[in-house]
Amino acid sequence: MKKQRVEETSHLDYISTLPNSLLCNILSSLKINEAVKTSVLSSNWRYVFTNPTNLTFNSENMLVKDYSFSNVCQISKVLIFNIKMKRASTFVSNVNKYLSRVTNVRKIDKLKVSFTFHNKGFGCNDLDEWIRFAVERNVEEIDLCLFEDNHLSAPNDSSFYVFPCDDIVCFNSFLKCLRLAHCVLAPQKPCYSFSTLEILDLFKVDLKSEEYVRILLSSCDNLERLSFSECYNMDYLKIEHSFCKKLKYLKVNLCLQLKAIILKSNDLETLEYVGSKVEFFFDTPMLKNFFGRVIESQGYNDENWLVCKLSTLLPHLKNLFLECSCMGEVMTNRFHTFQNLKHLEVIKVAIFRQDLSWIPIALNACPSLAKLKLHLRTYFNIDEELTHWFPRSPHNHLKEITLTGIRGYSSEIAIAIYLVKNAISLEKMIVDPRPRIYTGNGKCVCSEACESWNMIGRHKVENLLKQEVSSLVELLIL
């Protein structure tokens, strides 16, 4: 009897006993066609898929058979057009069919669409309805990427789908996150539903003009994170005290038409800027973190260059992250003092050898610095001994130094030795051969160390550094 009871128990369907809301969450993480197939498992599962918490519409989910353009050079333009139209028609039809089966769902957490749509092109009216469907069900996150990477060419700016903020989203009061890519966002009047937004992330979005940007930002009362990446038709970014009153993080990345950034915010804590030379104006008493990179070489020799202005414009800065290739010239000529800087992080790119000249300038310019991270990138090996050492520049507060991407070249070791000799309060030094790749918001990912590190580089660095490092300093060589 005991054995029989065990066998019976082992056949119980524990998954079906889970709460329906939890089952809906589980099915929402599956592909849509997989979720629909669960309806045949039993009578209990027949309608579970009709209550999704997330809607994800992409080619992987909605096209059983996708279309390949691998031999596109041998296909006529007419045939390519017909294939694209057939593909789009099937995609739209499948989404509409699926939505017709889930009309009873009451709450949608997220709508994500990844497919190519053009302004007033095929399927745009359907996309409007999908957004409306989600909005009517109190959607909290909308993520639209309206151009697929595997298509032949990017659409012209004028053909971008226009996000229907004036007509569709105006009655929504639950939207917290809006991510848009390859579309137009240009509200002609304040969109009060945007007042609930906490995150606005725009990639290759046509903003039309400064006036539309002003209207957009004036609607975002609760916005905490704002990102413009490779956006079009934005000459000036101006945030007033009355706009985005809770904004803490702002990212501006490669918006090539931008001429000036004017920031007046009492809550902004972090600014990330990547791009060409622009004018800055700051009225930001809480701005303590800056991540920056200038992309054009002539910017390094100009008085308005980004780094040269920061110490004057942001004297209260605590954390500074920079990426550059000729730091030495800039700092030597025009680098002023950061009295309050505690953490300096630099990605230092060099073609042939690392430059030591900027290190003493940096130490003098940052008298309160406690943590220094140098992410070195040296592409070619001209490994010659350093013949000229710069005068000592003792630093009283620097306690932790991290060097990454080091290969064991003499110019790299010279930097490490100079820092060790001058950081009189040093407690810890980390040498990591893995280069860092910056991913944004102060975060980096590691790549592989060079092949010669374990055979040559590590032994060389260890021998030379141990001769200079005090026994009171923790030296960690990875």
TrEMBL record:
Pfam families per UniProt: F-box (PF00646), LRR_At1g61320_AtMIF1 (PF23622)
InterPro entries registered for this protein in UniProt: At1g61320/At1g61330-like, F-box-like_dom_sf, F-box_AtFBL13-like, F-box_dom, LRR_At1g61320_AtMIF1, LRR_dom_sf
Record-linked SUPFAM superfamilies: F-box domain, RNI-like
F-box domain span: 12-60
Descriptive protein name: F-box domain-containing protein
Source organism phylogeny: Eukaryota, Viridiplantae, Streptophyta, Embryophyta, Tracheophyta
